[in-house]
Amino acid sequence: MKAFESPARWLADIDSDATAVLIAAAADLAVILDQDGIIRDFAFQSESLAMEFAEHDQWLGKPWRDTVTIESRGKIDDMLRDVHARPARNGRQVNYAAPRGPDIPILFSVLPVGQTGRIIAFGRDLRAFAALQQRVVDVQQSFERDYSRMRHIETRYRILFQMAPEPVLIIDAATHKIIEANPAARQILGEKGRLIGLALPALIEPESEAALEAMFTTIRATGRADDISITLSKDHVEMKLSAFLFRQGNAQLFLLRMGRADHAMDQQLLLSDSKAKLLQLVERVPDGFVVTDNDGRIIAANAAFLEMSQIMSEGQAQGESLDRWLGRPGVDLGVMMNNLRQYGSVRLYPTSLRDEFGTESEVEISAGVVMNGGEHCYGFAIRSVSRRVEAKPQTARAFPRSLEQIIELIGRVSLKDLVREATDVIERLSIEAALTMTGDNRASAAEVLGVSRQSLYVKMRRHGLMEAELGSS
Predict the structure, then answer these.
(1) Residue 139: burial class (beta carbons within 10 Å; 0-12, 13-18, 19+)
(2) Burial bucket for residue 162 (CB in 10 Å: 0-12, 13-18, 19+)
(3) Which CATH fold would you assign to the domain 164-261?
(4) Which stretches of the chain drop beneath a pLDDT of 70?
């Protein structure tokens, strides 16, 4: 501590009142003690600060150590013992109890005054500093949590990147050099450890470089581009390439996905031995089985479906819409696809199948949906019911109850009224059947019946079907 050079010259005429003001202004809390450590006087810098100390009005005449918390009393004893040996250099933090909330930390320095052993303790409120320290600790812990979370995310990314069955590359958008490559990419490019740092154009045939550069230029300008086909220098394999642009800091990077150009190879499922045996069984069942993409275009079909539709080979069906062979083009496939997207499955949907020569047969279709490579695939099991034997063959006289009531009206009402009544009954039965067929999906039922949705609502209201649905719900 640097002391005043001439205190007697400049401070000799200061009286006790001025000294008290100076002491109170120099500290947040000042305490005057006698040689035994008993509090004889004290001063707070502000009245609001004084109100935050519990029982401060009872400090006079009490030992200083009794006014602080228990864990701080040893520090008070040490300061009073060393006050004459190291004055003003023995600052220690002690805590005072507060009426509510946490304890109040005060940093004290003590000085001996005069020849009678009096001591003045100068205290500085550390709460602002403690709050700042706590904020620093909270920020540091927040950084630690964010760093840990990012480390876990990076670990998951690394695992997914390494285990992905399709070749994936990350290249620099400016230099076209490979930054990262997963094992599948290393295997197909055949460069092993030397792949990192190589320029991608050096790994493809020269005639493919123009298409690659055009795709990169389009992605930089618009953020997206169509897939392209390239030919690798190794083994002259033709691959389908798709790219995505992303940023890492100030750098632009491309994520490239590579797949076989052959559509059938690209769509195949990765199967275990048990799943492969199940697939062989599906191929040999007598019911037709078809796998389509999200647009209803056929990816694969078994031999039974080829026989039912009179197609010579599976290749003739691949890429064609299943709607081509269904009895109601534009209706049946749309109804089933809507139900698959909404409910995930369709059971025993009745329709007809039309072969290549125009012959129709009654069928029932059950369908389900699975994910393959991030996209939906739909499986349709098609069973012919043309030869199904009814448990109770219906006769010409087996009419629904509504039709029986109409027959009873013959001879009682005119033919005009009879036809109108029969038309209403048939219309009601058709609407009920369409709603049952589509799982109460009114939009699909309107498509099946060939009417608008608004027209369907009008007819349902006229026949009391709207009220019946409300009553059943």
Answers:
(1) exposed
(2) exposed
(3) Beta-Lactamase (3.30.450)
(4) 1-15, 85-90, 191-193, 224, 261-279, 372-374, 387-413, 467-473
Query: Could you tell me if 426 and 449 are in contact, meaning their C-beta atoms sit under 8 angstroms apart?
Result: no
CATH of 268-384, one of 3.30.450.20, 1.10.10.10, 3.40.50.300, 1.10.3710.10: 3.30.450.20
Burial of 163 (0-12, 13-18, 19+ CB in 10 A): exposed
With 0-12 / 13-18 / 19 or more C-beta atoms within 10 angstroms meaning exposed / middle / buried, residue 365 is: buried
> d(Cα 94, Cα 65) in Å, to the nearest integer?
10
Assigned fold of 401-472: Arc Repressor Mutant, subunit A (1.10.10)
Gap between the Cα atoms of 285 and 311, Å rounded: 17
Which residues are within 8 A (CB) of 222 and not within 5 positions of it... i.e. 6 or more apart? none
For 328-375, how does the pLDDT look when each residue is reduced to its tens digit (9 = 90+)? 777 888 888 888 888 888 888 888 888 888 888 888 999 988 776 567
pTM score? 0.36
Domain range annotation of the chain: 7-125, 164-261, 268-384, 401-472
Model confidence over 69-88: pLDDT tens digits? Answer: 999 999 988 888 888 766 55
